[in-house]
Structures are given as C-alpha cells and as structure tokens.
C-alpha cells in the first residue's frame, strides 16, 4: 500500500476483516460493494477500517452455525436467499446451518446497496464467492496451525476441516484461532462442477414468517410512542396548496394534530443539490397526525383544501398530440447510427412503418408507500421499504442539514418495488413530518394516494420503420417519443443493432409536470413488445418463419467488435432455439395460436412462445414457454418464480394496464377502476434455462419485456389483427369484438 | 371510544376503538397482529382476508361494531405451529416473491378448501381471483392450493 495507485487495488485486505466475538465465534466483515467494483475509489481509508465500516458480515458461532447478513434490499427478487447462497457455497457449509439476516445500510462504504436493474447477482457474484472462499481458507489455516501441519494438506467441506491423517475439526472449533490470523490472498474458487448449493432449489429464507404473518414489512414496523401520519397531496399534477380547513379533521376521534410540510423539500429543490431519487412537488402538503392509521386516513379525507394551478394541468389527449408531433418532427437526438438509413430507405422495394402507443402505468406495489422516521437531536432514524437506502440517506442529510453519519436507515422487506421504491419521496415526507412534530411517526399512504401521486412509467410512443430490398431487411430506424426522459444507457445498442447494416435510433421527449420514473424493465417493458411485434410483421412481409428471421439476423452480430453491443448473438440464438424446442414452435394443435418474441435486457437473454386460444370470440393466453440464458442459475426455484412472475406481469400490464389523465388528475384511483391481472386470467408459464457455466446475470426484470410481443403476435395469428396500442384490451374491445 | 371484546384466534380480546374502525386496523394497530395486510381498503385485492365464523371476509370492510360475538381467525391463528396444510404447501412450492399478499391468499384458500375439499383447477382459479398478487406468483399459488387439497384428503 505504498503507492497511490496501489491503494485502490482490489485485495482481500481491502474488504475483509475478522475478529473474535466476546460472545464466542468469529465475525468476518467485508465491504461487498467496494469489492464488487474494485475501480471505485473507496470513500474512506481502507487501511483503517473498523467493523462499523463494513456492510456485510458472516458470523460463525462456536457451534459452527453461520449467520450471513444479506446486504441488498429484498423486494421479492430473491436476493436475501440467493446472495447468501453464493457465500455459503464457497464457505462450504451446509445450508441448514445458515441463518440469513437483513443487514442495515452502511452509508460510508456503499457502492451498490440497492435493488434495481436486476444487477445484484451480477455485481455480487465474484465478491460473494471470494468472501466465502477466503473465510474458508482462514478456517483451514487455523486448523493447520492447531495440528502443526501444512495448510495445503488440509481441506474443508460441509463445515468440517480434514487433514492428511484423517483428523477432523468443525468450523466452530477453530473460529477463535481463525480470527487472529492474517487474511489470505489468492484463494481458489470452486469450479461450477463442484457446486453443491448453487444450482439447487433453496426455499425463500423468509417463507416461514411470510406464511404465518410475522412482522417483516415496513408497514408492520412499530416503535413505542409512534404516531401515524396521512398526507394530503395535490390532487392534480400542477396544483399547489393555497389554504385548508382542518376543523372537521380535528373532530375525528384519534386525530392529534394537523400540520403542513413542504418547506424542507422546497429548500432542497432550490438548493440545486438534486438527487435522482428526489421527486417531490414544491407544493405544501397537509398532514394529519393520529393515534392510529384509521384515524389518520379518516382525518385526511376530512381536510378541505383549496388548490391553485401552479403549472399546466395536462391530460392524455395533450400527451398523445405532443408525442405524435415529436415523431412527425425533426427534433431528435441521434443515439446510434450505422450506415445510411435515408439512402437505403430511398432505394428500397418497400418501407414498412408502424407506430406503437403505451399509456402511463402506476407501480401498484401491494404494500402501499410508507416509512418510519424519528428525528431527534442525536439521530435521524429511518426504517422502511426503500430500494435505494444510500441515496435516501444522502438526501435526508441534506434536507435536515445533518451530518451523514447521524442518518441511520434500516431496510425492511418490501411488499413489491417494481422501481417505485427507487424514489424516496415517502422517506422525505416522513422525515419532514417527524422533524416538524418531534415525534416518531409512520407515514402511511392509501392505495388511492399511491395511484394518484405516483412516479409513473411514462407514456411512450415508438415509430419503427424498416426497408426491404430484394427480400432482405436493409435498414431500420427506431424513433422514440417519451414523456420526460428517453431510453438510457446501452438500450440503443440492443438488437437489432449490429444485425442490420443501416440502423438508427432517434429519441425525443416532452417535459411534463407529471412525475415519472423507472418501472420494472424501464423502456424495454414497452420497447420489447413494439420491436418484437414489428419483427413479426417483417417476417410476414418477407414470408419467412419469425424464429428463422431472428436466427438469421443474429448471425450478423456474432463476430462484432462493437463494445457498445453487449448482447450476444450466440446466446440469443441459444435462448431462441430452446424456446422454439420446448414451446413446440410451429406444432400447435388446431385452435391454438402461437406467437414468438425474444429480447435481451438487463444482461439476460430471453425468448418466449405464447399460446392463445379464442373462447367466445375473446383471445385467451393459455400458455407461455420462456427460455432464458442468465448464465449459471444460482437458485432455480427462485429463478423460475422471477421469470414466471415477470411473464405474467408483462402480459397483465400489456393487456389491462392503463392510467389516463384529465386536468392533471389520474382517472383511476383504486383497484375497482384500475385493472391488474388475476389468477383466472393467467397462463401456465413454463421456464427453461440455457445450460452453461457463464457468470450469472439477474432475473427480476428480463422475463417481462418479451411477454407483450409474444402475446400480441399470437393474437395476430388467432384473429388476424395487429395490436399497436397498449392496453390491448381497449383495442380488442373497440376493433375486434365490436 | 367504546369498548369491544372479540374472539380472535380462540382468545377473547378487549380494546377500545371507534365503532366504524375496520377490523383490519384494529388487528394491525391495536392488537399488534400485522399478518393481515392493508392493500386497497375497498375489498378489491384480498390482502386483508380473515375468517369470520370460518368464512373468508375482507377485514378492511368489517366495522368492529358489527362483529360482536363472531369468531375471527387471522393468519396468526390459522394453525398453532404454522403447519396448516396450506402453509406447508406454500413452503413446499416456494410460493412467495415479495410475500406481502400471501397471508390473504392463504386465508382465502383455507376457507375455499373447507367448502370444496377436492377442487378442479378451474374452481381454484375462480375461487382465488379476488386476491391480487402483484408479483404474479399465480402459477405457484394455484399449485400450492391444489397440493394442500391433496394433503388434506
């Protein structure tokens, strides 16, 4: 560690430290997120870390029981089970000796303590394995010292260390000795063929608590002296509070007080120190404080507030006009351009152009937004469901003018995230309320408030055009018109980039005052359907099989040296072939209509075959076969659950999801007016994985984007009708079913 | 505020609450039984399902003043050891993703299987359609209900 350069070189010493526990056993601390991104400059001097500086721990008791503190927030994607599995594999302990606990946020050393983008497993893979393997080596070394033999002659398996003489020691018997040893460098990781936990079905670690109703979620959290808070927010996007009458609310039994918040949020907005997780309106909000949730909700409904128009009140008609005019116009950012699209379009035998439309979508996490806050002179204590705890801590520190070290966040299990809990608006409201009334509070939103003051998947329109010359696709132009923001990162370089020589992606956006943000598989959740429906039409036009068309196009990208193209032609083909085989593509029984779709997103390759039958004139999705290449499958039962859920979620929202606006106000307020897919509408989903030994990638999102396209293509086969607009149910009602 | 005494999970429980307070909030806020979940507040999602005299009902719609003398069962009282055949099936099938709606799903299924111990696949799908699972773990919920029916027969 003598040179500046060396200081940040990845090393065991940089992220691991062990010490004996007074209560017996050993605690291994490791900085997972520094380890995951070795080129990230650590925020503290790694040589002087103490235990408080780590964000993940393994504890091994004298009896050999292992506790693994899982660092990443659990939103239903399964990381609280799968990340500890990876440690346990390399540590080489039996899974039934492992107990998993959710770790709190470490605000000093984070680089990626968040749930989003299906990246937890991909980023954690190597570091988690090295942590387990290093710890195992320390236990082996300690045994070797005890026996007076060379550590190289010892081995460990299933929590037991064995030497050449056949002597055995349990992990628990050497933890005290291991804790004082030097941390070994250059440990050997297992070969995938040696895995005994990874690749086996491990049941969700919280399942006992879930099925018996134990407190787990943010809404379940309580503290002595805590009061409840319901927030009255502007009913329309663009409105601001003028005045309010709280006299009726205060008559509600159980209501303690009525206050306003908003000043701290406004100051933060005006400070310019913005943070991408901060999405709050500048308006004041009325807050009803009560002894229980029911009184808070009742009180909030009794508030008579007057609002004024602060900025334009927008509606769906306006959005449609704005987005269409963007598509017609010439104010685009060019996000990728290969060859000469204009030239091949002008020379083409035929140019096909289609426009696809999507509405706003609320997330509708089953657990409504809520957060606990207790702001005292000593500490900022925040507890609840948030996907981005470290950003929330930073904003909290800024808003309250408190040192970051005073902000303590605990993550609860989340009743769904889907991107909604990436944004900390509910945290910031909660802390402003607690700061104002100087009490521990729990902010609880109702479903109506969740739907009407959301951070939505924005309405987007795609216009896709392709040129055909001599029976070949010669050019492709994708235009995106979206509300507020456009496709991010490498999405412009997804398929068919690299497959079609003349290729262009152009984007434009309209800035709205309606808050928008990430929604499970942002952009690709709709782009996957638009693109894959379009390719189905191209295949029809070219009179080739849709599966063959994709396989042929993907040949062209196999040898690409373009670093922007991160999807693999071969892996996509593997997934496509597996889906076609398992889904019996082209062999459907009479009355069963198949649709195909394949999409790469979040580093995983997925292909799907959907089957539709027509019952009483209505197309019904009866079955979907999904084939996935996500590399090594860490936990097959969890992986299948993620993909099947993603497929049904994708179908449900493509079919029914629809949030429209009138005068700035969402037109649906609860599940009576907003339709989510239900069990009697769900297909059977079969999930298959491409078998390989490549490093694993995530699954929270990738199953979703292809689903809408597979269904739309199957419906086309069944009814001869192309669907260009989501939700499909509206188009089916008006155009097909009369 | 009036006093109420209800029989919940076989025990007599007393508390004070306003007459119009939904059972849901009494369970969660007053009695610290948080297994019954708040989802929509209008009986559309099923997350708050409990049994009243053995029948599945939405606790967000049950005012405490109407429940005098009724036997109420919540997820906490469905079995003494967390080993009701549905709970066992839920674990075996590894149903939950986020897990938030699952108590409500199990309570709906428990009441349904009492009425119809040998349901067809279609009957399960119809009986469970009042409970939303936003993670869409529907295939596994369906499978677990069928497995529980098998275990109970």
Automatic annotation (TrEMBL), chain A:
Listed Pfam families: MoCoBD_1 (PF02738), MoCoBD_2 (PF20256)
Transmembrane portions of the chain: 15-33
Domain Aldehyde oxidase/xanthine dehydrogenase a/b hammerhead: 212-311
GO molecular function (one): oxidoreductase activity
SUPFAM superfamilies found in the cross-reference section: Molybdenum cofactor-binding domain (SSF56003)
PANTHER family: ALDEHYDE DEHYDROGENASE, BLL3820 PROTEIN
Protein's name in the database: Isoquinoline 1-oxidoreductase beta subunit
Species in which this protein is naturally found: Tenacibaculum lutimaris
UniProtKB/TrEMBL annotation, chain B:
One GO molecular-function entry: metal ion binding
Keyword Cytoplasm: no
Residue ranges of the TM segments: none
Keywords: 2Fe-2S, Iron, Iron-sulfur, Metal-binding, Oxidoreductase
Superkingdom: Bacteria
Annotated ranges, domain 2Fe-2S ferredoxin-type: 2-78
Keyword Cell cycle: no
This protein's name: Isoquinoline 1-oxidoreductase alpha subunit
Native source species: Tenacibaculum lutimaris
